[in-house]
Design a protein that fits this description.
alpha+beta; 490 residues; nine-stranded antiparallel sheet; elongated
Length: 490
């Protein structure tokens, strides 16, 4: 099926995408894809090197007649979110992505597709190897670890890049031109507890929340999708209060930038209370499904017998855990007061794990206003500390402030209107883009972000529009023909 993808038009983009997707490239494990990019640049006899943190830079001279145009830095990230359906057998560390074509969409088989940001990478590769596309001097920046900390962008030193203009190819709607984004911070709450032996006369159950849509915790946070960790907590909270349920293990969600799709708990309760729990669980499941009739049509809430676990957490710790997750904010916290329909501040309770005497809760808090981001992060800290958790802040990165007077924005707006006889949407997004971080060391670089239409990013429902990639490629090639001359730089 991957061969079918490589034959799609434009072949120069889809062919490189298929080659890229054959290389395992989960975040923080990019060694193979870094080498893949180094081999690619060297095979074209272009200036190719790796910086101190692992970002790959490849430079290509201007085509004849374009030498006097400003140098353009083309930027995309090499890593991809690794999410899969529970029933899918797949090892992101060793396997390439299996793809299929379905009408106008390219999808993966039960996993994330990697179109975020693989299609941006593939388009840059196509430009680097092209002998027919006119362009100014190009500088390709392939960053690492965008999805789990943006450490590649953070580690890029001043003075390495030569471009006056940066085209970030990591936006996911083809009619949007992005001029700003949110910053973010990781909030992690953790604590230990002493395990207790399961008393005699108890029975074991497995509770499951699955089949949710999931999605990007920035771009999709406003859609009202269910969070598996929150749903599971409600079920556990009710079961504990009404039937004395005890928790042995809990495994919910995954990466911080993905809305949790699944959560599974191992629990016990007195054998005599089993029938009442089963009855009430059906009622609670009906209520929860009714809250998301259109948003989560595939929701499954499961209660099934299992072998009795050996140990459980104490009742006091369990109550603190459930109250903390119950109270902690999840979803949109505030809307922007300066841009219509833009989420300003949000939080995603991305990961909840209870295992062998340790509890860990991972959140990603985002905001386009730094003070609001820290206000919500500190509010979460108070909630978790009230349950005797230790709270840590990591990975704090800035947002990207919009510049409506950007010269390259004017170029993109004009070319979009001429090519497609419509006006693009000039927006800021609630996702994290690397532009804000890169701008700290390159404050005079004129930055813009755009890309093809990608739906369901950060979930196994991720899919890329074939016709949109054609539109994106046409737009990108045309932009390079209209880069301002050096002496006209503002």
């Amino acid at each position: 099926m991957n061969e079918q993808v490589s034959l799609l038009e434009p072949r120069e983009v889809w062919g490189n995408f298929a080659a890229l997707n054959a290389v395992p490239r989960p975040s923080k494990k990019e060694e193979r894809v870094i080498q893949f990019m180094l081999n690619f640049g060297n095979s074209l006899h272009l200036e190719t090197f790796k910086d101190g943190v692992g970002n790959v830079i490849i430079r290509k001279e201007a085509t004849p007649g374009m030498e006097n145009r400003q140098t353009v830095t083309l930027q995309s990230h090499l890593d991809m979110v690794h999410q899969k359906n529970a029933e899918t057998e797949f090892d992101f560390d060793t396997e390439g992505i299996c793809m299929r074509v379905e009408n106008d969409w390219v999808r993966a088989e039960g996993t994330t597709l990697g179109a975020d940001n693989g299609l941006g990478v593939a388009a840059i590769m196509a430009l680097l190897e092209s002998t027919t596309v006119p362009h100014p001097a190009l500088e390709a920046l392939f960053t690492i670890d965008e999805e789990t900390g943006m450490t590649g962008a953070m580690g890029l030193e001043a003075g390495i890049l030569k471009g006056a203009i940066l085209l970030n190819l990591d936006t996911e709607e083809d009619d949007e031109i992005d001029i700003g984004c949110a910053g973010g911070i990781d909030v992690t709450a953790s604590r230990s507890y002493t395990e207790e032996t399961v008393p005699d006369g108890f029975i074991g159950y497995r509770i499951g929340v699955k089949g949710l849509q999931g999605g990007h915790s920035g771009m999709d946070i406003h859609k009202g999708l269910a969070n598996a960790n929150k749903l599971m907590n409600r079920l556990l909270f009710k079961s504990t209060a009404n039937h004395g349920l005890r928790i042995a293990a809990l495994n919910g969600g995954g990466l911080r930038n993905a809305i949790p799709r699944e959560s599974f708990a191992e629990v016990v309760l007195e054998t005599g209370k089993a029938r009442d729990l089963e009855r009430d669980f059906k009622s609670w499941a009906t209520v929860l499904k009714a809250e998301f009739p259109d948003k989560e049509p595939g929701m499954e809430l499961i209660l099934e017998p299992m072998e009795i676990p050996k140990n459980v957490m104490g009742t006091a710790v369990q109550e603190q855990l459930l109250r903390a997750v119950h109270t902690a904010h999840n979803g949109v916290y505030a809307m922007s007061t300066t841009m219509e329909d833009l989420v300003e501040t949000s939080n995603n309770i991305a990961r909840v794990e209870v295992k062998e005497g340790k509890i860990s809760i991972g959140c990603l808090t985002r905001s386009s206003v730094d003070s609001a981001k820290m206000e919500l992060a500190n509010a979460l800290k108070v909630v978790f500390e009230s349950g005797d958790f230790q709270v840590r802040f990591d990975g704090n990165y800035p947002g990207w402030n919009p510049n409506p007077d950007s010269v390259i924005l004017s170029v993109l707006e004009t070319q979009y209107e001429q090519l497609f006889q419509a006006s693009p949407k000039v927006v800021a997004c609630h996702a994290g883009l690397e532009c804000g971080i890169l701008g700290r060391n390159y404050p005079h670089m004129d930055m813009i972000s755009f890309g093809p239409t990608i739906k369901g990013a950060h979930s196994p429902d991720e899919r890329a529009s074939i016709t949109s990639v054609q539109k994106f490629w046409k737009f990108l090639v045309n932009i390079l023909k209209h880069i301002p001359e050096k002496e006209k730089a503002v």
